[in-house]
């Protein structure tokens, strides 16, 4: 029976509608790296808290920039000069040190000559006079919103939070995910793999894809192709927020994920999306008896390794970002040009593996959804809409970046 397939956008919207951000926890800033802010972050202090010098030199009054001056003291970082700088006086000042009262210009040391306590101008005076001064509040002031809710805490955001006076940050607890490899042909031992077997590689791949999103991941399987074994594996994953299966999502006699989910008491939300690779992806939910009102979400990914990767990229990663309360959950597209011709597309939107050098993209010659070597050689997915015409060298094309998951 033929049935209209969901578009990628509709399927993503349906999945994301099933998931609200997880509970808020307060963790120290370094532990928050990789998580997303649960509330806007307000500065608890002003930075800089005082006018500071941005250079090593001498602090003087802007009214007398021609000198000469008499050296009357020093302001070093952490050790301010507590006197007043009068006309004709200079204070030795270092980068990051507080500007003394009365001084409103800094002359860099390369532009003066100091003999004993006598300082004379040998170069150029700063123009404007406060060129080398970092004003109080230049970076942020107490009460400013320095990060919006949903911002991802990376190195710069962690530093900003600490500079703004925070020891702890409100983020969402890590999503718990269980990844299940399934299929009779799979072996967990890549070194002892018989001819009729293949190494179970999807579980490791999906775990690695989820790792930058700070998920607590555990693995099950490979699980054999029987209803009982699959239901038992699902039972073992009963505490997970998200269960990810790979394989058995299609229409063959041994494709048991849908019947197993049904037997386990999960409700199918959708099955099959108009994308290539990845068409047989399914999404289901299950209410946990006696537990929270939050349903478990099951992502049934296709077994072909590239189909698994692509559906994890477009569904699992956005879902994890949604559970984290991320501001941006969908991957970013970049416009570029084709460095080689790309064939016209059929009725399913296709994502071609490609190699992008920052200016142009070359599609990989092998696009079979079982071909891992071409996936490993690619850094983008080229977006080919349904029925897109053939394009030539130099034509515009859009790509999704793989290296940071689009937006991490
Ligand atoms: N008659 C039809 N056949 C197929 C259709 C269809 O519409 N009609 N869809 C095809 C598409 S598209 C895809 S994608 C695959 C998806 O199939 P399954 O999700 O049922 O995956 P399996 O058959 O179990 O496996 C496919 C392939 O991937 C290998 N595999 C599975 N799991 C793993 C793993 N954990 N690690 C590494 N490799 C794995 C498996 O050995 C197979 O080679 O169905 C098409 N068929
Ligand atoms: O869509 Mo399947 O994912 O073509 O190989």
Strand order of the largest sheet: 7-4-6-5-9-8
Query: What structural class is derived from the secondary structure elements?
Result: alpha/beta
| N- to C-terminal distance | 39 Å
* CATH architecture identity of the largest domain: 3-Layer(aba) Sandwich
Ligand inventory reads: ligand LQZAQKY5, molybdate ion
Low-confidence parts = none
Please state roughly what percent of the residues sit in beta strands, choosing from under 5%, 5-15%, 15-25%, 25-35%, 35-45% or over 45%: 25-35%
Overall form: elongated
Query: Helix content range of the residues, please?
Result: 10-25%
Number of helical segments with 4 or more residues? 8
Radius of gyration, rounded?
A: 30 Å
**CATH secondary-structure class of the largest domain:** Alpha Beta
Mean pLDDT: 95
CATH superfamily of the largest domain: MoaB/Mog-like domain
CATH topology of the largest domain: Molybdenum Cofactor Biosythetic Enzyme, Chain A
């Amino acid at each position: 029976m033929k049935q209209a397939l969901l578009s990628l956008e509709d399927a993503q919207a349906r999945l994301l509608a099933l998931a609200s951000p997880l509970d808020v926890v307060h963790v120290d800033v370094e532990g928050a790296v990789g998580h997303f802010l649960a509330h806007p972050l307000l500065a608890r202090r002003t930075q800089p808290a005082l006018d500071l010098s941005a250079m090593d030199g001498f602090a003087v009054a802007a009214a007398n920039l021609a000198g000469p001056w008499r050296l009357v003291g020093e302001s070093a970082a952490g050790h301010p000069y507590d006197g007043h700088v009068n006309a004709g006086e200079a204070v030795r000042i270092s980068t990051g040190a507080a500007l003394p009262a009365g001084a409103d210009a800094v002359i860099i040391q390369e532009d003066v000559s100091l003999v004993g306590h006598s300082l004379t101008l040998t170069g150029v005076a700063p123009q404007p006079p406060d060129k080398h001064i970092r004003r109080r509040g230049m970076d942020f002031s107490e009460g400013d919103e320095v990060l919006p809710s949903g911002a991802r805490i990376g190195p710069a955001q962690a530093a900003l939070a600490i500079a703004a006076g925070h020891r702890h940050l409100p983020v969402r607890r890590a999503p718990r995910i269980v990844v299940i490899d399934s299929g009779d042909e799979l072996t967990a031992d890549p070194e002892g793999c018989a001819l009729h077997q293949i190494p179970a590689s999807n579980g490791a791949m999906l775990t690695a894809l989820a790792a930058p999103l700070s998920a607590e991941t555990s693995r099950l399987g490979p699980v054999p192709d029987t209803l009982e074994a699959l239901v038992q594996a699902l039972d073992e994953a009963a505490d997970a927020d998200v269960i990810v299966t790979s394989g058995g999502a299609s229409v063959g006699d041994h494709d048991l994920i849908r019947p197993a989910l049904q037997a386990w008491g999960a409700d199918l939300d959708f099955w099959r999306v108009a994308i290539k690779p990845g068409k047989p992806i399914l999404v289901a939910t299950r209410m946990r008896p006696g537990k929270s009102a939050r349903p478990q979400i099951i992502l049934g990914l296709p077994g072909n390794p590239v189909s698994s990767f692509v559906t994890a990229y477009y569904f699992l990663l956005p879902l994890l970002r949604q559970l984290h309360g991320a501001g941006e959950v969908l991957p970013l597209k970049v416009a570029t040009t084709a460095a080689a011709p790309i064939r016209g597309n059929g009725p399913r939107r296709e994502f071609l593996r490609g190699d992008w050098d920052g200016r142009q993209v070359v599609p990989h010659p092998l696009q079979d959804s079982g071909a891992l070597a071409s996936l490993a050689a690619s850094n983008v997915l080229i977006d080919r809409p349904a029925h897109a015409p053939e394009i030539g060298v130099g034509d515009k094309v859009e790509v999704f970046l793989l290296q940071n998951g689009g937006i991490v």
